Amino acid sequence: MTCSYHNPNKSSMLITNNLSMSSWKDKVANKRLTCRNAIPMAWKVPQEILANLKTPLETSKNNIIELQLIRRSGVLTEDELNITESYDVEQLLDALASGRLTSVDVVTAYSKRAAVSQQLVNCLTETYFDKAIERAKQLDELRSQGSIVGPLHGLPISLKDSFQVKSSQATLGVVSYLDHISQKNSSLVDMLLSLGAVIYVKTNVPQTLATVDTDNNIFGRTLNPWNTKLGAGGSSGGEGALVALHGSPLGVGTDVGGSIRIPSLCCGTYSFKPTASRIPYGGQKSCSQAGMDFILPSAGPLGHDVKSLEVFMKSVIKAGPAVFDSSAINVPWRSLPTMVKPMLRIGSLPEDPRFPLHPPVQRVFSEAIRKLQAEGHIVVPLPESECHVSNATETAWKLFGIDDTAYKHVQAGEEALVPSVLYTHALANNLDYKFIPDLSKLDRLSQLAVLRTKRAVIVEAWREIWVRNNLDLVISPSAQSTAVEHDRFGLPAYTTLTNVLDYPSCTIPFLRVDEGDVSKSFQKKPGQTAPEYKPEDVIGAPTSIQVFTMSMKDEECLQFAGIVDQCLQSKV
């Protein structure tokens, strides 16, 4: 979610001209054909494998992961399956640097797996398979001569569609952007190439990035690998699905309200939203008016473990992001001493009464706290009245609402708004605003002044929480729910909080919805906002927790996340 919102229920947004409808659909058809043709015939999934899926996919329960459809497709060799399933990022980099694995082998394996993933869950936008393999050959040649380009030498990395790669497209799921070709790379793309990485795919996003469900009129809907009836999250939903299917060892998304962490929750991956501007954000394709980024977005990684997130952060920051991007903070990576017997003081974020938690989330969060206490960590319950979860949500959506440029881009393409955008922004428009006063009679500058003042109240309240409780970190739910049915995720209150605060946040997968959750009821009360709870639909869905620290303590956040993760995986 990295664009603004406004009232989408405008007659000007409705398409009534059949010729216009035909025009934009023709553009979309041509783009989809180009994407299909970019997958080599040898990488196509046999129809007999696809026949294992119940249809329609988006209204039927299909567990792509447990069905092992990638392995059964026969597209990848045993060696390629081993590369994509048995190596973590550190092991891949070590094998690439030593020559035990070639970059060609690794990039080919992940390219094939990404292509298969695309055919199963529709997670890709742009593909660079031929160019990626050619770059891998060059990197292998350099290594054979004793030269390593950088700490990410030979590693394939996937990118969210909003990153620009020269001579390709970054549409943001907006038809009017199909006429745009990127003239240069985003700053982070240049950085990753300088560090030796190989860019091989970009991944799907929601229309305008302005919702946490991934669907648009160009590429269609990304499905959840654990259950195709559920959403993959957004706006980095394609990344979440691709990483979950091991079609990428390390992906990069963006986040201004939960757009890295919600897909991570929905798809069962690890992820990290850094402090804004620690990772270069320059050169992103945007659907907002320049200068309207009142909550700064962050770029950050999705991966298979905490260590892979740290590898990404450490590699990029140690390379000096400010050299590549004038908006990046010129603060070096800090190496922290190893905590031999860590005992952390952990604040426990309470349930906000306006954004109640679904039963599986309550259970998993309680179990996480129990495990942490059993390991000797001190858990400090924080007062709900001081944590401002709902107040931060109000503030964020009013800030997003100052800019309606995204809708003008949709209108320019003469396309319809997708259901999740309509649904999410209707929720935001109809929210019972208690913390934010009526701004309707104020001009935009005066509105901004009020909202900045309200945001400062929240930031100051949290400074007092850290100091008064002498906290190392805070643990919280990642969201009110697990993945839910398509187009109905709603407002991501528990992630938006740390965007308003500009705190680094890490999502850690932990447990899954089980049969015991089915018997537990959930009813919204007046004034509450939550997705509908359908326990039969979400059995087996991934669950997770979120941990966060104060701004600029990214290094501590990752170190503590590793400690928490180890504790959660233990048998205490």
UniProtKB/TrEMBL annotation:
<feature type="binding site">
    <location>
        <position position="235"/>
    </location>
    <ligand>
        <name>substrate</name>
    </ligand>
</feature>
<dbReference type="Pfam" id="PF01425">
    <property type="entry name" value="Amidase"/>
</dbReference>
<keyword id="KW-0378">Hydrolase</keyword>
<feature type="active site" description="Acyl-ester intermediate">
    <location>
        <position position="259"/>
    </location>
</feature>
<dbReference type="InterPro" id="IPR036928">
    <property type="entry name" value="AS_sf"/>
</dbReference>
<feature type="active site" description="Charge relay system">
    <location>
        <position position="235"/>
    </location>
</feature>
<dbReference type="InterPro" id="IPR020556">
    <property type="entry name" value="Amidase_CS"/>
</dbReference>
<feature type="domain" description="Amidase">
    <location>
        <begin position="105"/>
        <end position="558"/>
    </location>
</feature>
<comment type="similarity">
    <text>Belongs to the amidase family.</text>
</comment>
<protein>
    <recommendedName>
        <fullName>amidase</fullName>
        <ecNumber>3.5.1.4</ecNumber>
    </recommendedName>
</protein>
<feature type="binding site">
    <location>
        <begin position="256"/>
        <end position="259"/>
    </location>
    <ligand>
        <name>substrate</name>
    </ligand>
</feature>
<dbReference type="GO" id="GO:0004040">
    <property type="term" value="F:amidase activity"/>
</dbReference>
<dbReference type="InterPro" id="IPR023631">
    <property type="entry name" value="Amidase_dom"/>
</dbReference>
<feature type="active site" description="Charge relay system">
    <location>
        <position position="160"/>
    </location>
</feature>
<feature type="binding site">
    <location>
        <position position="209"/>
    </location>
    <ligand>
        <name>substrate</name>
    </ligand>
</feature>
